[in-house]
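Checklist before submission:
- one chain only
- standard amino acids only
- sequence pasted in full

Submission:
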Amino acid sequence: MLISSVFGPKKAIKLSESKVKMFYTGENVMRFPEYRDQCHDLVDVMVGFDHIDDDCYQRFPIWLEYFFPPTANKAAIDLVLSQFVKKDICADQHKKFCALVSSHDKGDKRTLLFNSLSEIERVDSGGKFLNNTSALKEEFEDDKIRFIGQYKFNICPENSNREGYVTEKLFEAIRSNTIPIYWGSHNNPEPNVLNKDAILFYEGSDSLGSLNRQVKELHSNPRLYKEFLNQDRFQPHAAEYIADMFEGLYSKVRMALVQNN
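Returned file contents:
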């Protein structure tokens, strides 16, 4: 079985003598013109984040790989989601203000948010991009979840905007019990999984003023911050939706192997 992705020449997939071929990517295929068709005519199984109605396609966004075991069933998924939810009794009054962890900023969204929110209070950047603290590496040994868990807010926009394109960044903020400041997936990320009322959204440069005011109010008011943070993060049937994606992937791979054996 050949498992291929967007990093390399498409012709290599065609030339492969593997009996079963699968195309998988967690990337936004719009950035890879050669692969915008998900290799439809070359493979037996297509896997990505897009919403595509095709018997050979399975939606399986990359964030699933970060938090769930490969043999995940509904019980295991329920357990993982329950570990995400930490009700904040004391409103985290001792937390620092805001963190960013990134290696680049292709769309300038992180720069805009970093500069804008820095007008309220210092924003700590632990990654390569705009780095101003060594704590991520030296104190937390590159454990991003623990690092951003020190902060009330986490700047976590995607690299590009496309419906369904949601990576691990937003879920890492939720897992760290901080409030995500997000942009991506047309600002409707994983509506079957996430409660968008528990997320702050960047809506374009004209929204920076109102976003700053909202962040400043939450930052300065422990009661409001506690209420916002303690909202339900997930939809009631999130586990079932996630389990269906796992089972759909397994089912399509099993069928491809059987049909080509």
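Reviewer check: The beta strands are 2-4, 21-24, 45-48, 57-59, 96-100, 123-125, 151-155, 179-182, 200-201.
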